[in-house]
Amino acid sequence: MPGKLKAKIVAGRHLPVMDRASDLTDAFVEVKFGNTTFKTDVYPKSLNPQWNSEWFKFEVDDEDLQDEPLQITVLDHDTYSANDAIGKVYIDIDPLLYSEAASVISGWFPIYDTIHGIRGEINVLVKVELFNDLNRFRQSSCGVKFFCTTSIPKGYRAAIVHGFVEELVVNEDPEYQWIDRIRTPRASNEARQRLIFLMSGELQRKIGLKVLEMGGNAVVGYLQCFDLEGESGLVVRAIGTACTLEKLSSGSGTHTHPNTAPASNACNSPSKDGKESPLAHGCRSTHNSPVHSACSSQRLSQNFSVSVPTLIFTGMGSGSMGKDAGPLKTLLRQQTQTALEQREFPFFTLTSFPSGFLLHVGGVVSARSVKLLDRIHNPDEPETRDAWWEEIRQEIKSHAKALGCHAVVGYSESTSICEEVCILSASGTAAILNPRYMREGCLDLGGSDQRFEDPSPSSCGFCHIPYDELNMPFPAQLTYCFHCRRQKVPDVLFTTIDLPSDAAIAGKGCFIQARLCRLKKKGQGEANATAISNQLPFMEYELHTQLMNKLKLRSMNALFGLRIQISVGENMLLGLASATGVYLTALPAPGGIQIAGKTPGDLNTEQHILNIQKRINDTIAKNKEFYEVNPPDLTEEVVGSPIPEPRLRSRLFRSHSESSDELSELDLSHGKKDAFVLEVDDTDAVEDIHSLLTDASPPKGFYSCNTETMPGIYNWTSALQMFTSVRVLRLSNANLSNQALNKVFTDLCENLLKSFYFKLRSMIPCCLSHLVFSVAVPEEDLIQVAVTAVAMTFDKDQTQEKPAEKPITKGCSEAEDQLQFSLELCTDSSSINSQSSSKNSGVPESSHLSTRDRCSTWLELLRLKAHTIRRGSVKTSRRTQSLAHSVSSLEHSSPLTEGRSRSLRSSRSFGGSSVSVVKMTPLSFLPGTRIVKYVGIINMFFIRETTSLREEGGVSGFLHSFVAEVFAMVRAHVAALGGNAVVSYSMKDCVLMENPNKNQCQCLINVSGDAVIYIRETDQEVTGSTANIGLSCTSSADGAT
Amino acid sequence: MAVELDVFVGNTIIMSEEVYQLWLDGYTVNDAVKVRMEGGVLDEFDAKVDVVLSDTMDQYRTFQMCERLLHSPTKLANQLLFQIPPHRQATLIERYYAFDDVFVREVLGKKLSKGTKKDLDDISAKTGVMLKSCRRQFDNFKRVFKVVEELKGPLVENIRQHFLLSDKLARDYAAIVFFANNRFETGKRKLQYLTFQDLAFCAGQLINNWTVGAVDNMVEDMDVDLDKDFLQELKELKVLITDKDLLDQHKRYKHLCLDGKLSTLFGKQRLLMRWRLISRGLVNIATKLTNTKDVRDFFIDLVEKFIEPCRSDHWTAADMKLYLTHYTNSAHILDTFKYQVVWDRYMGVIKSCIFKMYHD
């Protein structure tokens, strides 16, 4: 008997009136864990009952402890009829199973009912006593810590990063069982909530087991998702990065130098007892095996990869495989390669890394696959789903190889389901990692002062191309790094990760979004899937084109945090790409955008084009000023550089039809123009340019980004406001053209942003960080966009700060001094060393001129119709990559921001509240504070339903209160764990189904995050955690019992 | 392209005081948007109507959800649904319970019943306060009245604790409750010139000096009901006008003191005449207060018996003050007058009420 769970029901308050006659309630509580149920006495006639129950003890397996939630049901006693349920509380007791996390759960929980929402609160105490050595119980994985945070959690050091872990569990969806016809909506919702709690518990346990097998003790970047597949079932899947974390003793910096281990035996140990890949990448044949089933006839496959600035075809089966053998230049790299290759998937869900971890970044790799969900559900064989994902991951892996990279960072997976069609997507950033970290180096974010002797400076090293110049996976413009002048860099760089903390940038970052809406015919089964998969490559291409144009328009040359979501609906496909644009000083300056008309004779057109050109130039100039993009040495570079400067000599091609698959190589560049050319040859193009220009830049005082922090802003103050916004648009006109639809969708996103700016205007100067948009097509003619982000204030003017805060701000002004210094240095070096650098660099140049020429076209080849029919799947995959250069560390990362001055505004304002304040943020840190403890992962799933939609204020009223309730429940759980904030908060699902005619609506929300205890930077002791006080009280109370 | 759903929810409540006020004032969403657009605050932000509309809708929804909590403000502090910083909580409550003086002036002294509630549209039309706002204010009065009705202890303190109001607002509510409970007549035309603040001040005086609570502070309704014993004792003051000696003596003493001090130039005769009238008036008010009907007419009596005569003689406020002070004090020197304590308790209140009610 490995564990004893104890629960005590203390009291209730604000209960609803259940007895109309007396206006009171006779409440009692049922406490259930597994199959055991206890009841409290009835506390008669009170809306604020004081049960003060005994300790209910459950003796259970630790396996159950991990899987099951504690279920607390509050009921109204009724002598004559059945007792009425008031509501429930599910408590995940997982946080009590780690030694370092919370030791007791204690606090007020909202009593939640899926029909009525929150109905009062209940005060509960929960404790767990664990016996025995847990590791002997292999079915359980108690003690493995889970973090949603996609970086090494603060206060920890990663001794070893073991790598990718994934798992999925499948079950029947209770909503689709026969019994659902005869039970109440409440019963059905509760069955569903409970099932998902169980499934996610089970999933976490299984992942934990894998981590233990690998020798790790934690999962970082844990991403859990639900796929509501309707009749074919319910899938809960998760991915993460297994690590061995060590707790840093607070205060002492991390001075363990990582250079202790010889690089040669890097990584052998951890992966040895880890799962050896059953699909070593040599044997691609296995790839086919999962799809041999009956379904195979329903699927077709199509694959290609897109890389921006160029579209190329990389063979799926074997074509790309040959390429990657060559380019490994250094011994170091080879070693890493070997080490990583021992892993099935060298993927990392992390998005930010300690300096020195990331050596080079290749570009974005992504893969999509359209699947038909099997009609016959078979919960005992989740293998089909496993196989699907396996396939996609293989694809990603091979793309990474094609880019000369051995690892994928910033990796994530997602799905979009409409009826029986499901699009599986995965994306990440191909990268080369420092092998040192693979075994026992330090991967700690805490020690920002740690610097490694590295061949390439950390400020630009990651921009250097990882692939072989002679054997480029796609055509790209290469130049010597503008920073170190030794290595080659691409002209644009797209990544899914956060901007490395030591990267050198100019100016501020900027939120860039590409939106696309495409009609599709309604269809069924295979035909439908084919239609969708045929559209995907075009969508990918167009999204990238948009991103590229917008990037140029802002005079920037790199994208971070790129996230492309493609959502499928019955009659349309939505594509939304969000990223944060940055000017990396290591990369060449982006050229302007030039408009070219196809019919030069026409005067009107000429005039029109001139006008557009002028507007574009104005916009670029305006953007430069707004984002303060002033590359230090622009003119000098252009004039004085001895390196044959490949200005962007390319143009964008609008029409897809021209890129037929017959063309193996299509040089469309005119070879003369310096600028990026947009051709205005049809109305589509004009529309596009208009939409390009109508993107309003944020109002003065506002910045926005979708990464952890805004590049170029460092002096955060502590005021923050996390928010969730959902908007659903009904398309009134059924016969919209693609163009009109695009406009509608673009306006929807733009208006949302405008709304945010307006609502949050009191926080100016302020930055919207971690803007995460998710789109869905819940029904025909409906477009749903849900956004979660955080608004954070910053100090515009450092001199305004109070003298008392000087010591804190000093750090950042120093950083800026440093920056200026290095900027100068860089300018110097570029003028003085330019000659020598070209000579010194070991890379021969002239021989590659031809390559360069070849690459100078943006659209080289596009083979869309490359079906491989024998493959049982439809896939699209895409890859992007580009170039850069940089200066010194002008960075936004956590160590710096933490040292920022802060305003006491928010913290002060909460001073006297009787409910402890819980801050929430999608970021992994809270400005002006230090996270001292992670008390557990929050992973909650709620269903809310109403049959009186009008009375609740329509869908908006309904969802508004539901979202507020979800926040309230998250805060209550965090407070009960003794935490005072949630970091890395995200809303992963928000599924809304409405039926206004029946006055009904149902909504499902899934949220997650890490509960933490933070202290304000200046404070010595823990602040704001009233729950902690409660904690000590309760433990003494416990001692008494 | 209809927006089917549009919500924006912050972890910490998001509200603008301007919109809250519009909501409280009873503006519909569309009217509120109009007002905001006209307000010009938005010009600097270049906000379009749809943006303002969406923002207003979100806030209105938030306020509607909060309204339930605002009915018992103590819940607002320990509810979990909204995370509201304490200073915001205070603003929400204070503003919610704030009222328009013009409106309250209309219902002051009326029974807080369904009947009065039905008349709210008339009051709304008359005062220009929107009906919705009238309803809220009226319901607030009723709610406060109901809660404190059954409580022991000082009225103002009870209101402050149960509704977390500021001292000023709690006092105003105490006045409203006091007026409603004693049903003082305030609606007559002659009283129209009095503002709510005048009357609230008087109520405060009465509560502090004439109620049961002024002597005993642990009785139910202590601050709401007038001290019956005291009212009984007031009858004894009759001697001041019935006893000829006392009357003359009193008159003489006062004249001694007042000689040459009043700025108004009255003839001595005129003053003497007034004196008789005023003195009789004030004492008569005192002796009649055992009658509930006369209690209701307390303010109208004060105006008719004292303020109007003085005003017709064009007394300045300063003169009036001086006069009343000496009138009160001179009674102390009377040898045979035995009701000094009652007299002081009575005149103290009368004096301050008249000071407040006497507008130049």
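qc> Chain A touches chain B through 61 residues (CB under 8 Å).
qc> done
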